[in-house]
Every structure is written in structure tokens, then in C-alpha cells.
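Input (nrcam):
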Amino acid sequence: MEMLFLIYVLVAVIPKAQLQNQTRTLPNRPPSIYVQPEKDIYYKVDESVELQCISDGVPAPKYNWTRNERPFDTSGNDNRMVLLQDSGTIVMNKPRPKDEGIFQCKAYNHLGVSTSININFRQAMLEDFPYGKDETITVIPGHSVTLRCTPPTSIPKAIISWHIRDPRTQATSAINLDRRITQDLEGRLYITNVKKEDHQDGKPYVCMAQNLKMRKNTFSHGYIIAPTSNSGTSDNVAPHYLWSTPHEIFGIIGQELRIKCIFGGNPTPEVHWENKTGPIPDNRRTLSLGGQQLYISKLQMTDRGSYTCYTTSAIGQRQQRNINVIVKSKPYWMEDGKPTDIERGVGEKATFICRAGGDPTPDIQWYINGVKFKDAKHVTIRDGRLIKRDDNNITLIDLRLGDAMVLQCNASNTFGYVFADFYLNVLKERPQFIKGPVKELKVAENTDVHLTCQTSGKPDPIITWFRGSQQITGGRYQIQPNGDLLIQKVVLSDAGNFTCEARNNEGFDTDWGVMIVRRSTRIEQSPKDLEVFAGTDAKFTCSGTTDFEEVSKLRVYWLKDRKEITQSNQRMTTNVQDNSLTISGTISRDSGFYTCVITNELDQQEASAILTVKDRPEPPEDVHKKRCINNTATITWTKGGFNNAPIQYFTVEYNTSVETDRWVFAATANQSANTISLGLRPGVSYSFRLLATNKIGISEPSKHSEICTTDTAKPYKNPENLRGVGDKPGYLVIEWTPMPPIDHGGRNFRYVLKISKRGNVVVDEVKTITNWRQSRFEYLSNDVYTPYNVSIQAANEHQSSTARLIPKVIYSGESKPGPSMKIDTFVVDNADLAENSATFYWSWDMNNNAQLHGKFRGFKIQFWVKGMKRITFREDEILEKDMKPRYGSMKKRSTVEYTYTVRNLLPFTIMEAQICVMNTYYVSGPSPIVSFVTKSGVPGPVENLHPVLIASNFIELTWERPELLNSPIPDEDLTNSYLKGYDVGFQTVKGLELGQMQEMDPQIIDPRVTKCVLNGLTSNKKYRVYMWARTENGRGEQSFIEITTAKSTAMDVPSFFVKNVNSTFFNLTWTMVMNKKYGTVAFVEYRIKGTSDWQQSAQQFSKSWIGVNKLHHGTSYEVRLAVTNGGKTSKGDIEVIRTTGISAAYSLGNNFAWFIGLILSVLILIALSTSIVMMYKSHQEPKRKQYTAPPRKRVQYEATGSDSDRDYPDDRHHDDAYVKDYNRGYRDDDDRYAEENQDNYYDEEKRRYEDDGYARRQPPYDEKYDDRHDDRYDNRHDERYYDRRDDRYDDRRDEKYDDRYDENYDERYDDRYDDQYDRRYSYNGDTRYSDNDKRRNQDYDRHGDRYNDENRRYSDRSDEGQYAEDESYRPYSRRNDYDRTPSYEKRPSSFTEDVDLREPAKFDADGSPIDDKPLKSPGKSSFV
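Output:
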């Protein structure tokens, strides 16, 4: 129904409303001026000026002007003036002096006349100062001087200031005023005490008058100040009066007021103010220029009264002046006292009130249409309908259409006036809408809504409201006096169409609007109260929801103390994501109420929280001197704000007239105190200030108190720290601590110094010292280390101090001890020599001081490297208190043998030493020199460590060996006999953090090497590289450098060739080139020709060759070399090779009978294995640790290894019977192993072979071997196998056993099992063959024909075997965090670099290298 009604309204009402709007006309209205000039207008001749006058009214008003109360016509002024159209504004193009006057604008139509205020139109001017020559004023320094300035005529009043004029350029610079150089309010300049610098090098002081309206200034003649004395000192002058504001001064309420007092004197007086209304300064009353000027902003009636300015000084009486401030007021409109426009209907009445206040009380004048009330001829006056009840009230009754008029009211007194222009309009008209209802008004529920309906019409229309077709009668709906409809607490059901009807005797009118009600906004998360420390951050959070239709308009903002926080406040930021408010670096004034406001432009919700910022306290206030008498002062104060952290205590500080810029601690007072008494020094002027302390910190200092001056008196103490300085032979040198001026107590301060030789009755010397800063006196004594009685006393104008005089014994200067003081018993303890320390012994007679020539202080041991004394000379002082006897106590013995150990010596160095006797300032001749050699220790740091080449994953380093200044062995033998090599370590650097320490492997064992390559690094990363020199005693002091590896770039692959190709192996060799273009990590990729998947060898870091084994017989392979730097990988050209032998696929068909025999053999082995398993199952055995090496290798290793750590139970030799039994045991275990694994193994291999070809589906060797065979073999055959063998061995294995066993075993075992392996496991991972075989062949001991595997370094073993044992190993190309370095401490000490780094020239049938070169000479390094 509501929708139907809305459609009806849209169709029926809108055309009617449009028709009414088209026929509306504005009612007549009297004129009213709303733009007019200021009261005072200043103009400059021939510069355009504008007098504005704009009004409104119906019909449009016309304008005229008066000047000096006479009609003024702009057309009769030589076209210099123009009256603008549609306004009353006059533009004067070239005003003349004759144009001055009092102007007034009038706007009129048939309903009345509106007038402006009176405008004082004056010509601006500034006359020049009269001409005069510069004059010189002679002044005694310390006295005051006044420079007079009589300002010239100026309209408006000129601004007066003082400047220094340069006679050469006539340029001027303003004088900075302070409490010594100041200016009174009439323009005179005062220097309260003249100083030498006031001469200004003869430049004159000039007075400048400036007129801003004229944009002009003018200067007076100059004053040159000539101080009469150039001694640099000034007279002390008591404070005296120079100038002050007149005794009585008037001030106007609301305006500012300045009063000032100037006193002369030296030191510069500080001015203070008193007033019964309260302390000065305060919020509105501030002091400047050292207290001389009191400024009161926005003067109030309470500011009236007497003000006293005063100054005090230690050398004069108090000076003061009293100033009486009289406060008056210009007229001002009282509350509801300013009359306003009134519109009434016919027959009604109108009352105008004009009420103004002021001091004195203003006079009220009424005007009608610009004519004084007594002269007005208006019709309402003639027929008696205008009633003037009093000066403030005019009432008109029984109004008629012709009664419209404009009235004026003027209230004035001596200090100014206020003026009001207003009208009465009498109307008779039908209702018209001024502001109708909003056509579509959106509101939020639970809010109060005003639907506007403001109309005009006379008589006043009666307003009726309808909701739909139903009249609104009351309740939550209330019609306001102006016609608006107030709906309280709107609900959703209030939505709909609302119609306003206005009706009077002349007719009616209607208007309508639609109200849409949305759900209210709600706050879901309110901010919480916070308490923080100043300087920290505070964060408030807030969130809310609103009506779905208004979500897009939802906005969150924050208020602080009801004022919105804007983006201009950089410390307070709002996060648009969660609407949180963050206050960075909080300060105490951030404390307050913070309000979160969530609005959708229809309504808003608020939630507030309190932020409490704990900060340092505010400084104490009102610090005053309550009493200052008898060298005691009582100070009072008022606490300042504590900023949310209670005050703990107050600190009192003082400064004095002696040091005005230095504040000194005086005392502390507890938090509840507001007064304290302090003891003072005589003859000093003090001022005091306080600081407050809480747990957050210390406040700023308070303002200082008044000056407290004490009376002069005798000094209360003498100079302290009287002492002698014996550094000058033949003189008695006396020093003391000077007494600062605060301790002088009066004028003419001096020191009185008395000197007499000890034992003499007569005083040898009396010296008076007048310079209080002097702290040293030298008396010519012509003797050595002789005692004197010395005293010093302070004195001033009141004579000597009151302190007790205590003489002190002081010795004259010392000199060098005589020859008898030389020590001849100085020796070194050779048995106690260490690598960096040596112990010495010597004898000394404590009674032998005849030629000491001073006070015995101890001994001095001097030592140095032999032959290098000038650059290695060092000294150790042994003071008397540190002397240690060699044999127990020193009692009852005059001659004692002492001992001392010198430390921090260089190891393995020839040293020399000597000893001297010391007095306070000199040493005796040295003892005979003793020589000794320190023991060898760890070396010092290597010298000049730096990179030669920095690549992306390696660096080349070079260095110089550690320095040994003077070694007991020749320098050429140091490298081999002292140094044992070098260790290199490195760690990553990221900011201030260091990564885990890693070490280069292998380290450097050749001490003659001074260059190496550190590889395996990551590109574009910062490293810290360490190097230690190493001796038999361990590592020495480290040296380190920081480098950043190069960025990863494209690399070239070195040239390579393939050799030593046999049935299962080939060797790939390349040229090792250290260049940024080559990666130092290399590996081989190979695959069977015709297949797609590449296999990868182990990665190589230091060798220039890689051997690849476990290949298939008679098979073609594609081979290529790849290099990587950790970031990028480059691969070389493909080369095709073919292994020797017959391919397994063909061999199987041609040897079918052999294959049948092999199957039968396997079945027999399975049966044997089953029987062995059954026997072992009869008893439980613990689970064994996994071991990945095949059984064959274990037998060979134990049979041939010469360095085994195993212990054997008996001494029997290994004869042939034993060898047979040993091999049979091995074969039994092998058969048992084959039986347990054959079924599963062959089933899976058969399935792989039959399913889409075996070659393509063959998994990598490591996966087949490690995952499927190692676990099962190791768990059953690892330690159990060796346990049985260990019981039968002993540790005496001779060469007969080794030779016999090696020959028998190799012939019987290798030939038979290798053939079986080739035929049965051609495509499978051989659990009995591992890269460890090749490793043993490579590491075969060439001299002893024995294997030496146990003592080899981890890195010496082949790479494949190395990584096969590491379960965490992944190929280098798949790992970005590649790290290859093992710990230095964990590697064995016995190793040979040649095994690692030299490529073998020959290989055996299995592809293992054979060395046919003799071993290098010991000590020679093959490190690259």
C-alpha cells in the first residue's frame, strides 16, 4: 500500500509543486549593508584605494555617500573616482590630500535606508628625522648610557628600532636587544653597563622609524660610544633607575598591554615583578628581556592594580618602581543586547533591544533610516504607534504594510563605539517554502531525525505533517517552532513518505520527502585503556559493522580529547587494514582520551579509552628565596606536574655571580618537601633552581629564584693538596690546588707561602701570590732531595683565613742515582724459560741508598730482541710494593734476592735484558746484559694474507710466513724445522652474524707453501677466511680477511680426454685451470648410447681426473664433463666410448650350458645358506649395526691390512691350512647370503627385464645397492662375521702370511667370483663389489706392499665410497647449501698429500690406479 501511495504522490504532487515554484516571488525587504570598510583607512598619494559598500534588499538598493556629513558626488573629482555598478563601492585611482575626511555609505530603497559605520579616511605619511652630525658619547666601562630618539611625525604611528650603521657602505644591521642593551616603549636605547665591545669599531648607533603603510623608513643621526678605559675591566656599579612605564597607564579589556622597567648597573641587574593578583609570570603574563618587560595578553578586569618592578644587588640597595594599571573597556554588546532584523505580519508588534556595556557606560543613540530619532518624521512616530520605553527599547504596535523601516543603534564612550544596522519588514503573503523536506533522506535507526519544513508567509503559516495520508499527532513525532519535524529514536518501520503543509489566511502550500531507515552502526571491538612509558609506542584497536547497504561508506577515524587526529600529525598514524591507531614515541602530553568513531555518514558510534603516558615530571614552580641571612638561605617551591609517575625527590642546584653559567648541586629534598635551608659561602651572590625526579627520569630545571647575596668575611679554609714535585734538581717545587672565587670570601684574595729548611728556626722564604689561579711555585734550593717545612695560607681584605695552618715536609728535587746503585747480580733462570716468559733473579741491599738521590721506588727491567733493540725495546717496572723475595720473607736481612717474571715475550727468540734501580723520577745505570732464548711455542699470525683471485665458488689465497725476529736457528731452516704447515678455515658473514666455522680439507702440510685455493664456496656471498700457522705445539695466532665471492656467471668447460677404458671402467682427465670462467667442482655425466637418462659420477673438488666404474661389458657410452660453481652448471661436448669384453645379452645365449651350471650352483648355495641360517636361529643375537661394505672387501681388507687395531688370541702363523679354512668360511657366508636373497632378487629383476626393457627401467646403482641389499646383508653378516674371525687371529701377521694369502686368495677368489659376477649380475648392483676395491688399490702402500686405509684422511678416500657411506649425501647440482669440509680436529694426523692430488698414470684390470712413480721427498708439497 505504501508503494502505491508513493506512486500516487509522485504523479499528483510533483506537478503541483513545480507549478507553485514557477509562480513564487520574493517578498520586499528593506536594504541591509553587509560589506563595509574598516573604521580607519590610510592611503598613499597617487596609489589606488577602495572603499567597499555592498548591501542586499528587495527591490535592489541604490547608494549614496557622505563626507564630513555632507553629500559626496564621485563624478565631480576629475575622473579620479568611480562608483562601481550593482554596489556602492568607491574606487579612488589617484587620491589627493584634499580627499581626507569622514566617509559614510548609505543604501536605500522605498522601504528604508541602511547606513555604514563612519570611515576615517586619512593620508599616510612619514616625515624624515632632522639632519644632524654623528655625536660621540664617552662612558666609563660598567656605567650606563642613554641614546635618545625623537620619532618624526608619522600616520599611522611609526615603529621605532635601533641599528648599527657602517660608515663606508651605509648599510645597517639591527641590534639584538637583551637585558643589557634594551629599548624603552618611547624609542630610547639604554645600555645598562657599557663594555669595550660596545664601541663597535667606531660604527654609530642610529634610530630608525618605519611606516608600514608608506613602506618607508628613515634614520636619525648617529651616536658613537667611546669607553674611556682599555684595561679590559669594568667598574662595579650599584643598580639604579633609568626608565619605566608612567606611574599610571590605561589598558583596554581584550587588548594587549606592555609595561617596562629599566635599571642600570654592573653586573647587569635582573628585574623582578610583584602583584597582589598572583605570581608573575603566568599563562597570560610573560616576562622578556631579563624580566624588564611585562607583557599581558587579552587584558582582563582582574589585571588592574599596582605592579612593582624591582632589582637587588650585593653592592647596592633594592631599586623599585610602582606602576598602576587602570583597566577600561570600549563599548561591547551585552548578551542579547545587539538588535537584529525583524519581519512581522500586519497587526502584530515588534520590539528592538539595544543594550551595550563598557567602562565608562556608553551612550545609546537611535536612528531611523539614517536620521537621528529626535529628527525622524516616520509615520509610526506621528500616529503614536512607535513607543520608546527607554534608551534601550523601541516597540512598534499595530503594524501596517507601510511601516517598514531601517533602524540604527550606536553605543559609544571615550574609548570607542559599537554600531548596529537592522530593519523592520511588515509583510502580508501566502505561505512559501524556504527549505522543504529532503526528497530522499537516509537515516540510521535509533537516531533523532529532523525533517525540514521552513516557510515564509505573513501571518506566520501553521505547519501540519503527514506520514503517507495519516496526520502526525505526537509521541515520538514533534513539530518544532520553525516547522521542522523531529522524530526521536527512529525505527525501521518509520520509513516512508512524509508531507509538510503550511497554511495561513492567504493560502497554503505543501512539500514532501521520502525517509529511508538503515540499521545502525555498531562497534564490535572497543579500544582498551593503555599505560606506557614516554618514548614507547601505544596502539589502540577498534572495529565495527553497519547496514549492508552502507558498508561501502563505512569509515573509522580517531579523536584525541574530542579533536580529530589528522594526517598532519606524523606521530599518530592509522592503519587502514585493521583501523588501529599507533602513537609513536609517546610523550606526556599524549595522555588523554582517545575515541574511535565508526560512521557510515548516516550515524556513528564511539568508544573511548584512556592513554596514560608516564614521563619525567614537570619542573617545580614558584621557586623563591624566603630568607637570606648569616650565610644561610631558605628556598621554597611548588610541585610541578608528576606526569603519571610519583615524584621521588627534588634536587636543589645553585649558580653564583662568580660562575653565572654553571649550576652546582647543593642538596636533595624528599618528595613531600616544599622548603629547604642551605649553607652559603661569604661574599657570594646565589640564585637557586630545582629539578624533580621520578622513576622515569629527571625534569627540566625550574626557573631560578631571586638572588641571595651573603656578606664578605675571612676565608674559611686554606689551599688543599699541598705537595712537592721532585722532577727538577736544585729546586724545591711546590704545588697546591687553587681556591676558586666562591671560596675567597671577599676582595684582595691572595696566598701566603712560607718555606724553611727542616731544622732551621728562621723562615727562609715568605712569598705572597695574588693570582688565585696559580698552583705552582719553584724555590731555588741548590741541593738534592733535602727536606723543607712548607705552609700555605689564604687571605683577603679581612686578613688571613680562620683555618688552622699545618706545615708539611716537602723534599727538593731528585736526580739520577750514583754509580753504586748499579746491580751486578742480575741473572736469568734458564730452567724456568717458557715460550713467552722468563724469570730473573738479583740481589739488593735496602740500606744502600746513599747515592739513590731520591725516594726508592723499585726496579726497572729492560728487555729486547737481540740485534733489534731500537724497535723491540720494552720495560717492566717493579714497584716496591710488588717486589717478591726469592726465598721467603725479607725480615732480618738487609740484602735480599728478588725474583720477577717477564711475560708476553716472543717464542723461539734470542732476547737480551738488563735491570736498573728507580727513584721517583730517575733510574740508575743498567746492569750487565744477560741473553736467553725463549722456547718454541705456537707461531704468530701469517703476514700479508690476501686473495689473488676471487671467483664465484673459490678463491686463491697467498700469504707470507709468520715473522720471527731473531730465531736461534738459521732463517732458511725455520720452515722445515719450526713450522709444520698451515690451517685454513672459513665461515659466512651475514650482517653482524657469523656462520658455522668450516675448515679446508685437506689442510696444508708443506710449510714452504705460500699459496692455496679454497673452493666449494657459494657465489655472491660474503666470507670470513682464517689462516693459522701450525707448529708441533699447535696453531698460532689467527689472521683473517673478509671477501665476497663473485656473482655466478656462465662457465667454459675445460678440455678433457678419456683413457684407460676397460670392460667396467674408464678414466676422464681434464686440464685444471683456476679461472673465474671455470667451476672448481667437476663431475662426469654418462649414459648408455641410445638412452635418455644421464648418470652422474661423484663430484670432484681438488683432483683433475675422475674414474668411473661398474660399467657394462662391450657397451657404448656417451660421456661428457660438467663443471659447476654452485649456482650455474656448464656441460662439455659428448664423447662416445666403448667398454671392452662381450655384451651380457650375447654371452648368455652362447653359454647356455654354463648358465645351467650356474643355476645349479646357486641352488646349492641356497641350500647351504638355509642350513647355516637354521643353525644360527637356535640362539638369539642382538641386532647388528649396519655396514654397507660387501663381504669380499672385508676379507681382503683384514687379510692384507697391516694397520689393524684388532687383538688376536694366539700367536700362531697363518699357514696354508688356515688360509683354506679362512677362505672356506668366507665362501660359506657368501653362499648363505646368496640363498637368503636370491629369490626376491631374481623375481624383481626378472619383472624389470620383461617389462619394457631392462635398460630403460634400471634404477641408479646407489639406489639398488644401498636400499635393497645393504640392509639385509649388514643386519645378518656384519659383526657376527668378524666376531668369528677375530677370535682366530692375533696381531702378529708376517710377510710370509701376507704374500701367501694374497697370491692364493687373488687367484682362487678373484678369477672365479669375477666371472660369476660378469655372467650372473651383468645388469645388477654387485653386493660384493664396491668402489672400496678401487680405493684400496689407489691407496696401496708402494714401499711395503700393504694397504694403509685406517690412518687415511676422510677426503683421501674415493669420492664415490665417501658419499656412499653418507646417507645425507646428494649430488652437488641438487644442493644449494653444499658444504664439503670436515672438522680439522677429527681427521687423522698421518696423511700424504700426493695420494690425493696426483693423477695415476696406469690402471689395473678393474680400473683402479697403479702408481709406478717413486714417492716424493719428505716435506715437499703437491698442494695446488
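The first strand starts at residue 29 and ends at 35.
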